[in-house]
Amino acid sequence: MSKTAKIGITCMILLVIIPVYFYFFQSDKEGNGSIRENVKVVQKATKTASTDLEAEKNEKASANQDNKATAKNEESVKEEMRKEDQKTVNPQVDDEKEEVQSDFLVVIDPGHQECANLGQEPVGPGATETKIKVTGGTSGVATGKPEYKLALEASLILGELLESRGVKVIYTRTTSDVNMSNKERAEIANQNQADLFVRIHADGSTNRSVNGLSILTPSEDDKFTKTIFQDSLQASQLILNETQKNPAVKVNGISYRGDLSGFNWSQVRSTLIEMGFMSNPTEDKNLSDTAGYLTNLLTNIADGIMLYSSHKQ
Question: Which domain does 81 fall in, by range?
Answer without folding.
Answer: 43-89
